[in-house]
Amino acid sequence: MNLYGISQRNVIFSMTSTHIVFVGHHKKRLIESLKMSGDFPMGKIILIVGEQESSGEEKSRTVAEEIKKDLLSVVSTEIAYIDKKDVKRGALQIIDLIKSEESSGRDAVVNISGSLRTFAVSAYIAGSITKSRVITSIPKYDANDNEIGIEEVIDVPVLPVCFLRDEQMQIILSIDGGVDSLDELIIRMKPSMEKYSDEFYKERSRVSHHLKVLEESGFIVKNRKGRNISVTLSALGMMMLHVSDCQTS
User: Fold this and answer.
1) Which terminus of the chain has fewer CB atoms gathered within 10 Å of its CB, N or C?
2) Are strands 76-82 and 44-50 parallel, antiparallel or unpaired?
């Protein structure tokens, strides 16, 4: 057992779980949340700090380095850097972390007990999209309202995410990587369709309508290139690639 009271008892049955832990300035609260994560066993810990340079972030990074040093003898621990200002980009980075862990056979538990507000928002978005477990701590206070520890660690229910109709999701999946024109998009979606046929022009009209809706909703970005209009996914659109319940076969 190390100085945090975290021992092999916490990790022996947990080799399929990775705790993604957001590090702020409340070191004591974060340590307590790790100690009280017995119901959420850990096989690996990823400590999250902001990628932007700032005086406040320097303190968070120091806390993360101290925790990493103390935990390495018990559980695999590393530090990752996430955008703390752009919530959508931060959420996408967290989704990538979660997917990377899942591809290695580990489930993700997202611990927002010590996170900054923007991190908490990004983490919740990522947890909802990937259906990962999100946990946080309830602080304990004394009679003078001074924080003295943690009452309990709780699950934060995530929301089921599915913003798009099947046709719109098919378009999102087909745009992945970007397309240089509407015709290219249609060919990706229906490669057997004869170009410039009546059916092709009907499909062009249908897809154009959906693209307008997707652009207005912030899922795609259009850019004119000569006579053509290229289409790429926005950060929100890229997140939708990970929403399995909306993906069509």
Assistant:
1) C
2) parallel
